[in-house]
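Closing statement on the zinc ion sub-project.
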Amino acid sequence: MSAQGLSTAHAPVLTRGGLRTVAADCVRPTDRSAPRHAFTVDVEDWYQSCVDFDAPINDRVVRNVDRILDMLSGTNVRGTFFVQGMVAEALPRMVEALVREGHEVQSHGYSHRPLNRMNQAALRDEVERAKKTVEDAAGTSVTAFRAQDFSVLGSNLWALETIAGVGFEIDSSIFPMQSARYGIGGWTLAPHHVILSGGMRLLEVPVAVWARGSLRVPVAGGGYFRVLPEAVLERAIRSVDTAGRPAVIYCHPYEFAPDELAGYPNLPWKLRVSQGLGRSRFEARMTKLLRNVPFGPLRDVLDAWSVR
Ligand SMILES: [Zn+2]
């Protein structure tokens, strides 16, 4: 282990909401060329995922994903695409292209209906379909999962049993602070194992949160990511690194389409304001961040930090 590394091999087992967790080994990379932080995309169609779960998937997703692919090829970065199952079914050629271009393809649920409103049978069906649809389109094995709207909460931590039970090994579904819509206050920020029944375990890799004393700032994506001054955002990500954790950031294809909301004149104004905030500058902001900070796909980042 390097002198700079942080070994957590003998970390205590903690009990969280009835589950046991144990810190993962996590060693800061010494190789300057290694991707230290994960660039991830939740691939969904904004209208279907946020407004009407029964709406068909629109092929504007392809246009928006193309913008992301152009940005990634321009900055020489590869990423992890958590693809929603309904999107994989509707747009399999797009998913194939992601794999062909060297990106990692994983799962972002099937329907985008929140997991915390599902009973056990519905949840099992959801996550089985999530895995199969993306695997069928990608032609690769799908082993990492991110719940729609981070909908693994304190009230449905049992969902992790089902997620592991259908064959997922890595999970990024728990937002590790309480926010207005989701999250679990005080949850572990660094990668850790959740110990489940029957000897199963999941490697939980939360998205980036900047911790300053008792204050936690969600810098991984969403509103803060879009409106914080760029220098502050970059400092936050570097301070996650200094604290001994890889930063996992996330975005959505529609955030790269500043004019898309104009096509929906009847949206509630609150939704319009929250979704529209910072969108016009989003691509430029993300491009700059990718140039200044070494990002890569989640699998490579976990390897670089020797997470196990
Ligand atoms: Zn989503």
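Confidence is low (pLDDT under 50) at residues 1-10. With this model delivered, the sub-project is considered complete and its resources will be redirected to Aim 3.
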